[in-house]
Amino acid sequence: MHVFVTGGTGQTGPTVVAELVAAGHTVTGLARSDAAAARLESLGATPHRGSLDDLDSLGRGAEAADGVLHMAYGGDYADPDDLIRRDCAAIEALGQALVGSGKPFVSTSGTLVTRTGRVSTERDAPDPDSVAAFRIPGEWACLVFADRGVRSSVVRLAPTVHGPGDYGFIPALIAAARRAGVSAYIGDGANRWPAIHRCDAARLFRLALEEAPSGSVLHGAGESAVTIKSIAEQIAQMLDIPTINLTLEQATEHLGNPFLAKFFSLDVPVSSEHTQALLSWAPKHATLLDDLKIGDYFTPQASKRAEEIWLPHRGSHEHNQS
């Protein structure tokens, strides 16, 4: 299959591209810079110059392919309306090029669109009051193409996709623990957090392209419910510092970012049982806590990158979402 991929040079994208190439697929990847083009070429993919806002380029890339995988997402997170507009416009351009073809179109969302305080499944409707509600219109924009002759599906990724070079939520916790000399959790720390290893996510994306029925919602969660307290305790053990429980207000000061404090206070477990049964997919790689023991999370480079992203006033803020 010739697959057109957006987001192939982000944090998860290179592993997905490598998975597709290793499985015998031909990959063309959206590249908005020379560096992105070179990265795609190093993975065995062909660059397609353009950006999320270049809708004509997106349409041409999709039209020339046998399937589309849309992972790119970006913009100003302080302006959710702009995020929604850009994502839906890109999805519309990609999907329109596939109408009536029966080709697969896989788009990406997140499990944080689900309701808090319960184990959500793939069959549960997203919660319009969720912290990631800005991802919901993109889900709908993709799935509507199931009624227009496109084998469309959505993969909701866990908020932590862990593996080498992770610069997401967990490195921010580690960087804050280094600064303060304590590893913190909020309240009793019993709130639950899904996670998935990057290699397991890559295999899921490939299987979704190859096999997912039209209209499917899939959960990319290798672990359904890792407690925030257990994460904080593993960080404390690795840094040889104590743990501490904080209020939400105290956590905002500790983390230096109200966005992070809010996210780490959520109880958002999900199930991926339906996804695993539907695609004969099972997570095989390290768990999040194991990855904290054996991965590269505690290198100086990891902490520096987390500081630059989550505390931009401490360093240059330059986060390539795609």
What report would you give on this structure?
With 322 residues, the chain is an alpha/beta fold. It has 2 domains: 2-160 and 196-222, 3-Layer(aba) Sandwich (Rossmann fold), CATH 3.40.50; 163-195 and 224-267 and 285-314, UDP-galactose 4-epimerase, domain 1. Helices cover 41% and strands 19% of the residues. It is built from 13 helices and 12 strands. It has helices spanning 13-22, 34-42, 55-63, 80-96, 136-143, 169-180, 198-211, 228-239, 248-255, 258-264, 273-279, 288-294, 300-310; strands spanning 2-6, 26-31, 46-49, 67-70, 104-110, 151-157, 160-162, 183-186, 192-197, 216-220, 223-227, 243-246. The strands form 3 sheets. The protein has a 7-stranded parallel sheet, sandwiched between helices. Strand 4, helix 4 (80-96) and strand 5 (104-110) form a beta-alpha-beta unit. Helix 3 runs parallel beside helix 4 and helix 6 (169-180) crosses helix 8 (228-239). The protein is globular, with a radius of gyration of 19 Å.
